[in-house]
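Issue 218. Parser rejects a valid record. Input:
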Amino acid sequence: MFDIGASELLLIVVVAVVVIGPKDMPMAMRTAGRWIGKMRKISGHFRSGIDAMVREAELEEMERKWREQNEAIMKANPVLPDLNQMQAPNGSEAPSLAHAADDVPVVEGDARSEGAALPTDAKKPSAQAEMHLPPPPP
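Output the parser choked on:
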C-alpha cells in the first residue's frame, strides 16, 4: 500500500529507537498498535456500510427490472377469465360446470343409462383440467 521496503523500515526503526529511546519503545509500539487497530475498525465499518448501500441499490434495481418484466409478460399474456365469469354472446351468463353433464345426451349402453355410479374423481373436474394446465413439477 505504501511501498515501504526493508531498508526504509529498518531506517524508521533506528530513528524511532534513537528519538523515543529503548526504554519507552514498548509503550510507543502499543500506542501505535492501538491507533492502527482503531483505524482498521473504522475503515472496516465504513467499508461494510458502503457495501450495504451498494447491495440495497442493486436490490432496488433488480426489483424495478423484475416489475418491468412482469408487467411486459402480463401485457403479452393476459389472464383469461374463469369459465363462470365468461358470458355467452347473447349477454346471459354461461352455464356452470355442475350442469354441463346434464346437457349431454344419454346413449344406450352408457354407464349413466344403466344406473351405474361414476367414480368419485370423475364426477367433479379438477382445477387443472378446467384451466388446461400441466401438473406441477415434482
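Fixed in the parser; the record now loads. The mean pLDDT is 75.
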